[in-house]
Design a protein that fits this description.
Elements lengths: L2 H29 L22 H7 L9 E9 L10 E2 L1 E2 L2 E3 L7 H8 L4 E6 L8 E2 L2 H10 L4 E15 L2 H6 L7 E15 L5 E15 L4 H35 L10
Parallel strand pairs: 1-5, 1-7, 3-6
Antiparallel strand pairs: 1-4, 2-4, 7-8, 8-9
């Protein structure tokens, strides 16, 4: 075979191999398909808007409506069926309102009344409230009847237990020895809400610990005393925290008004 013939043969062989490989690829492609395009979330109702629950969207859509200076209505609420020897309650439903100011001192109210850009603090009473209490709407309606732009809602959470340190002495001394101790923990919590639409401006929380020596015969009275004392201190701390919270409210919503220190 001449050099020219051999060269032609090699080119023919290469062309044949190219055809064979091409046919093989065509055969593979005819039996394999890509997995497919990604799902269209919008087509099945999943979007940025639908990923947020309707109730959450409604909450996020609320805007502050209070004007400054403003009046504030205040109310203490507790769980339904709340009972205390030193406090009266009103209403039934998901919560009740404490109508007795037994832990709030005059100094506490003075601090709240003296907050910058506050025209006054008005406690809600039973005359303004319906007997059925289910949501914050009933409280905001009562606040609106006082023409208060904001509503301060607070609650007290107290736990306590009695420890007997020297139980045998209870019998020996007929309960005259202060061998028992009432341990009390109180957390006071509050939120500041827009009367018109429930917009939440801020919150505050404070905790106080207390203890009261007692004897086996008067432990209930000692616990009541310790509870009231501890709750009073917790509320006082809560008011101090609300002063700081109010400073942030004025800064963010009060049109840039300067907030002076509250004494």
């Amino acid at each position: 075979m001449s050099f020219r013939s051999a060269n032609i043969a090699r080119r023919a062989t290469s062309a044949l191999m190219g055809i064979v490989i091409g046919l093989a690829l065509v055969g593979c492609m005819s039996t394999y398909a890509t997995p497919g395009a990604p799902a269209d979330f919008k087509a099945i109702g999943v979007s940025r808007e639908s990923l947020t629950d309707t109730s959450i969207n409604q909450t996020l859509a609320k805007q502050p409506l209070a004007t400054f200076p403003c009046g504030i209505a205040a109310v203490r609420i507790q769980a339904p069926g709340y009972h205390s020897h030193a406090a009266d309650t009103f209403g039934s439903g998901n919560y009740c309102v404490v109508t007795t100011r037994n832990i709030e001192t005059d100094d506490d109210w003075k601090k709240l009344k003296n907050l910058p850009m506050v025209t006054g603090i008005a406690p809600l009473n039973r005359l303004l409230l319906p007997t059925q209490l289910n949501t914050d709407l009933e409280l905001r309606q009562a606040a609106a009847s006082l023409h208060a732009d904001m509503l301060l809602i607070y609650t007290i959470d107290t736990t306590f237990h009695v420890e007997d340190h020297l139980s045998p002495l209870t019998v020996i001394t007929l309960g005259l020895s202060p061998n028992m101790s009432a341990q009390v923990v109180t957390t006071a919590s509050a939120v500041l809400m827009d009367t018109r639409n429930g917009y939440l401006y801020g919150y505050s929380e404070a905790t106080e610990h207390g203890a009261q020596p007692a004897n086996g015969w008067t432990s209930e009275a000692a616990v009541d005393a310790a509870v009231k004392r501890t709750e009073t201190k917790a509320f006082g701390k809560l008011v101090d925290g609300l002063q700081e919270t109010w400073g942030d409210v004025i800064k963010n919503f009060g049109g840039g008004a300067k907030v002076s220190a509250v004494h």
